[in-house]
């Protein structure tokens, strides 16, 4: 549905901008991942930016849903959230969902904007002057968050956008357009300011992502999408400095650089964070600490990951800790850890939500990528999994509708290495099981993919989970703690008991027929639920078989499939 251009920067404009930015990064993700050479050539900047904005957009949507449900602050919740509500949610969502170096900086850019836009809560909206000030604060606060700012990066692009906006006159549309043009011009010059980009023949990946976000800002206020900039500036350029190029063209990160990327959220006071910055700066590089008001997102590249986490423990309470190894065989390696010897003819790579399912997929011959609750894999992890499978032909099963862009970016990257990849758009691990059940490596690749796709498409999927907050659903209003039964991605049942909700979901699914019911139990599922559902199936559907698997810590209490 087409967006209606916004005249002022209000809550609706924030919502529209987040949606347009997410769409723009979704389209540009593969391109941005492909040109990612600085600070580490790990091929995931586009994905990290997308996931960061996705978290920001989800937080803004939650604020609007809360008001629509009558739960918003103030005496008239039907009036909708204020600008302050929306920008605070956007900044907080970006902060807690920030991924990688560029995602962390983008989170601080959004936080800087929020500090200005939320300043005059009585106004409820900002004009062109407010947007100019917000972009200036964004660029300045992001630069301050980086321990050692480097020119030719997203920081340079952000500063150029703020400078251009500051010289512009007119409404929000005029200011946004000037900021985008300034950013676009600065992006084109990044190879002249950073040798690693010039040698690779690309512009800065983080800056490219910011230009996409600013293009979405222009579209928010004008309804027009500005023209894009080609990311590669010299097709004949060689590999980046500090990296080597493999025979297949893959760029391998500098082995002399830090071994680990460490990211975590931290609850701590300002004084403790100031000491933490000094300690982490001595431990490694690419240090970015963003946030405030007691909650921070910490990003650093180090050789001693344990020391980086220990420093966070001493400063406050770190959580959502992510440690990624840049060395051979890791998700950030673009070729050095590749298995030797003859390639297999065909392999299946699948994302799975729990340890139990990972074991099941592995036993069936697939290469499993574990997606822990709240931590979806980045495209770099999928790329490395495909390489680890060491096959000429690969079938990729994302098993989650939210991973479609990530999986597509990974598939495009490995195709450039000469690997034939087919992406089957499975939306659940249940559909992946169905696809894997008919997989036959001995037949022609196209025939195998068609058969697996057909099996997945013929499988209805559901999950039983616990609501995290009050919200509107297809089945009515749910409260935090309610048991939700989702069928094919939509809430169909709201209940108070896991077994009763699962029973209602299963009855709905079997009403359309079926031959096989698959149950995947999470760690939090009641011990008796599987036996209860099996008994119900036998009593009401004599020709239907049931299989049960244990998925472990998979997020959902129970997964159900009917095929």
**First-to-last CA distance:** 33 Å
Mean pLDDT: 84
Spans of at least 5 consecutive residues whose pLDDT stays below 50 are 71-78, 232-255, 327-340
Radius of gyration: 24 Å
**Which class best fits the helix and strand makeup?**
alpha+beta
Categorize the overall geometry. globular
Treating each run of at least 4 consecutive H or I residues as one helix, how many helices? 19
* Fraction in helix: 40-55%
Protein model, in words:
This protein is of the alpha+beta class and 563 residues long. Mean pLDDT is 84; it is low at 71-78, 232-255 and 327-340. A hairpin with a 5-residue loop joins strand 1 (244-245) and strand 2. It is globular, with a radius of gyration of 24 Å. Strands 15-14-11-18-16-17 form a 6-stranded mixed beta sheet. Strands 4-5-3-6 form a 4-stranded antiparallel beta sheet, with helices on both faces. It is built from 19 helices and 18 strands. The two termini are 33 Å apart. 54% of the residues are buried.
Topology:
Layout: H1 11-34, H2 45-68, H3 83-97, H4 100-117, H5 128-145, H6 154-166, H7 172-188, H8 190-193, H9 195-200, H10 205-222, E1 244-245, E2 251-252, E3 260-267, H11 270-283, E4 284-292, E5 295-302, H12 305-315, E6 317-325, E7 344-352, H13 355-363, E8 367-370, H14 379-389, E9 391-397, H15 404-415, E10 420-423, H16 429-437, H17 445-457, E11 460-466, E12 471-473, E13 476-478, E14 483-487, E15 490-495, H18 498-510, E16 516-522, H19 529-540, E17 545-552, E18 558-562
């Amino acid at each position: 549905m087409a967006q209606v251009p916004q005249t002022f920067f209000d809550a609706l404009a924030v919502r529209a901008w987040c949606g347009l930015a997410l769409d723009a990064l979704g389209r540009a993700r593969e391109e941005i991942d492909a040109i990612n050479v600085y600070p580490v050539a790990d091929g995931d900047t586009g994905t990290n930016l997308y996931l960061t904005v996705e978290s920001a957009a989800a937080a803004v949507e939650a604020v609007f849903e809360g008001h629509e449900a009558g739960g918003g602050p103030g005496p008239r919740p039907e009036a909708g959230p204020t600008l302050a509500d929306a920008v605070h949610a956007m900044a907080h969502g970006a902060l807690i969902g920030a991924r990688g170096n560029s995602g962390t900086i983008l989170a601080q850019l959004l936080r800087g904007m929020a500090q200005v836009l939320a300043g005059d809560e009585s106004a409820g909206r900002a004009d062109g002057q407010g947007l100019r000030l917000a972009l200036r604060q964004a660029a300045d606060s992001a630069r301050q968050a980086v321990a050692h700012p480097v020119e030719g990066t997203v920081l340079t692009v952000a500063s150029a956008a703020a400078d251009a906006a500051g010289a512009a006159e007119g409404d929000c549309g005029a200011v946004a357009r000037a900021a985008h043009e300034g950013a676009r011009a600065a992006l084109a010059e990044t190879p002249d300011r950073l040798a690693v980009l010039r040698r690779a023949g690309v512009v800065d990946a983080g800056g490219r992502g910011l230009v996409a976000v600013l293009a979405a800002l222009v579209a928010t206020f004008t309804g027009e999408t500005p023209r894009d900039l080609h990311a590669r500036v010299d097709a004949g350029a060689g590999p980046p400095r500090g990296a080597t190029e493999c025979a297949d063209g893959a760029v391998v990160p500098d082995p002399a650089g830090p071994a680990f990327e460490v990211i975590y959220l931290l609850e701590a006071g300002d004084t403790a964070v100031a000491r933490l910055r000094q300690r982490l700066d001595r431990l490694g590089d690419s240090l970015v600490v963003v946030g405030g008001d007691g909650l921070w997102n910490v990003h650093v590249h180090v050789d001693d990951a344990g020391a980086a986490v220990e420093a966070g423990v001493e400063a406050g309470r770190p959580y959502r800790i992510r440690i990624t190894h840049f060395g051979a065989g890791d998700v950030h390696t673009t070729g050095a850890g590749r298995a030797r010897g003859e390639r297999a003819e065909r392999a299946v790579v699948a994302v799975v939500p729990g340890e139990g399912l990972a074991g099941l997929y592995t036993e069936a011959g697939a290469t499993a990528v574990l997606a822990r609750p709240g931590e979806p894999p980045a495209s770099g992890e999928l790329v490395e999994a495909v390489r680890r499978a060491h096959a000429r032909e690969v079938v990729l099963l994302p098993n989650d509708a939210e991973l479609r862009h990530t999986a597509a970016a990974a598939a495009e990257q490995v195709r450039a290495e000469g690997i034939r990849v087919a992406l089957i758009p499975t939306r659940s691990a249940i559909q992946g099981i169905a696809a894997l059940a008919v997989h036959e490596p001995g037949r022609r690749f196209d025939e195998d993919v068609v058969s697996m796709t057909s099996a997945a498409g013929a499988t209805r999927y559901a999950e039983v989970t616990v609501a995290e907050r009050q919200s509107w659903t297809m089945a009515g209003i749910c409260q935090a703690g309610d048991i939700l039964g989702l069928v094919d991605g939509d809430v169909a049942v709201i209940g108070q008991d896991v077994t009763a909700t699962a029973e209602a979901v299963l009855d709905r699914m079997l009403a359309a027929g079926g031959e096989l019911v698959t149950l995947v139990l999470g760690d939090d599922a009641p011990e008796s639920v599987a036996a209860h559902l099996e008994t119900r199936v036998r009593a009401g559907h004599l020709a239907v078989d049931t299989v049960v698997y244990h998925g472990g810590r998979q997020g959902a209490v129970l997964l159900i499939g009917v095929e």
